[in-house]
Amino acid sequence: MRVSLFSLLILSAVSSSLAFTHRSNSRHDVSLSSTAAPEKFVIEHEHCQDPGDRDILIRAARGETTERTPVWLMRQAGRYMEAFRAYSTKYGFRERSETPEMAVELSLQCHRKYGMDGIIMFSDILTPLPTLGVEFDVVPGTGPVISTKVETEEDVELMGDAASIDFDEKLPFIREILGQLSREAEEANTALIGFVGAPFTLAAYTIEGKSSKHCLTTKKQMMRDEMGEDKTISMFLDKLAVMIGNYACHQIECGAQVIQLFESWAHQASPAGFENFAKPAAQKAIKIIKNKHPDVPVIYFANGGSSYLELQKDMGADMIAVDWHIDMAQARKILGPDIPISGNIDPTILFGSKEQIEQSVRDCIDKAGGPGSKHLLNLGHGVMQGTPEEAVGWLIDEVKRYTGKNE
Q: Rounded CA gap, 232 and 215, in Å?
């Protein structure tokens, strides 16, 4: 068993106190004190030992042939883990994600236990919205709720210049979190993943104000835009694209080695809606990232967008991630052999048997072209709450063990 050389503060109900203050300038200052002695952490897996493990995920995302198929999981830091719930049941989401000590700890728990090929920062796609004056809260039982209204062109204009945002001033915790995680990832011989929400998803979430079944208000804005009556959504998408592109660059400059762009509400867009609104905005954000950091791979994931996967071939991203609604062999056929692909196991398989999980891993890898064939194994969505912890370990172990059909 290996022990991490970095020690993190462990919070306890008795020995820690938390102050989380919202100020008028939309910044959050957190003071965290603890009398608990620093502890060393036991590494429960035997992965991430080979020299190539440090950057295998990065190489796969760039489209290189790798010695095996790398793996990480969306929502790998999540409530399925008992260690994670020790925090989530005690502290609100923004306290956890904007307090460096907690965000770092929550990012690392899953890697210590399973040894994925990447550590992803514990955060949210909505985190940078306050830099544009868009405020949100995460309400237990409801999810994110956005109080700022974006209904007119004037509302967008009042947000100011997205290109001049100082992320160190507006989101000071990001540099501290990623800086610490960068050191931890190097020591753990693995990659550090940053992420952002795609412009359409952030625009729709903001316009609707919360999770929405039909996204009707947003779609009405899109129709008015198409008729030339109101350009609010086009203006908002453009502003978000600039902010998101620069925010991703900020994450890279703070230590992130790969960026995943989440189009979490792709299922709300028709093929035409995607092509006319979501796609151009995402392409603009990706172009900003690639122009400034051409060697950092960008992964684009359109959740619910597999029905128009052919429209994603020219996103400008290095890798396309696909959801579980499409067979991996079909996805590979649509994208072709040269576009790196990520995905796409149905997350509910993790409620199955060990044999079923291992077989789903082998099937996914084989359909993507075999081990190391420009494929990054992931789920087709995030790890679900209630997933047995041992099941995640079975999946990770099989991905790293599998050498192909002729083994």
A: 16
Using only C-alpha atoms, the chain has a radius of gyration, in whole angstroms, of: 21
Beta strand 28-34 pairing with 16-22? antiparallel
Return the residue matching tokens 């099941």.
391
Distance of CA 200 to the CA centre of its chain: 15
333: CB partners within 8 A, 6+ apart: none
Q: What is the dihedral of CA 229, 233, 236, 237, to 10 degrees?
A: -130
Residue 144's SS3 state is strand
User: What share of residues in the chain are helix, strand, coil (percent, to 5)?
Assistant: 45, 15, 40
Residue pair 286/249 in contact by the 8 Å Cβ criterion:
no
Write out the chain's pLDDT in tens, 407 residues: 444 433 333 333 333 333 343 333 333 444 443 333 345 678 999 999 999 999 999 999 999 999 999 999 999 999 999 999 999 999 999 999 999 999 999 999 999 999 999 999 999 999 999 999 999 998 888 889 999 999 999 999 999 999 999 999 999 999 999 999 999 999 999 999 999 999 999 999 999 999 999 999 999 999 999 999 999 999 999 999 999 999 999 999 999 999 999 999 999 999 999 999 999 999 999 999 999 999 999 999 999 999 999 999 999 999 999 999 999 999 999 999 999 999 999 999 999 999 999 999 999 999 999 999 999 999 999 999 999 999 999 999 999 999 998 75
Phi-psi region of 255 (alpha: psi -120 to 50; beta: other; left: phi over 0): left
Distance of alpha carbon 371 from alpha carbon 83, whole angstroms? 32
SS3 for 300?
A: strand
- Residue pair 195/123 in contact (Cβ under 8 Å)? The answer is yes
- Measure Cα distances from 184 to 17, 191, 353 in Å: 25, 10, 33
CA separation for the pair 377, 394 (Å, rounded): 14
Residue with tokens 């062999």: 329
CA 329: distance to chain centroid?
A: 24
Helical (H) or strand (E) element with 343: strand 341-345
Closest CA to 74 of 26, 42, 110: 110
pTM (predicted TM-score): 0.90
